[in-house]
Amino acid sequence: MNTYILVINPGSTSTKIAVFDKDEPLFEQTLRHTNEELATLKNIDEQYRFRKEVLLDTLKEKQFDPAKLDMIISRGGLLKPIESGIYEVNNQMIEDLKNSTLQHASNLGAMMAKELAEELNIQAYIADPVVVDELSEVARYSGHPNFPRKSVFHALNQKAIARQYAKQNRCKYEELNLIVVHLGGGVSVGAHQAGRVIDVNQALDGEGPFSPERSGTLPVGDLIRAAFSGEYTKEELLKMVVGEGGMVAYCGSNDAYKVELSAIGGNKDAAMAYKAMAYQVAKEIGAMSTVLKGNVDAILITGGLARSEYLVDMIKDSIKHLGKVAIFPGEDEMKALAMNALLLKRKEIVTKEYN
Question: What is the pLDDT of residue 313?
Answer without folding.
Answer: 98
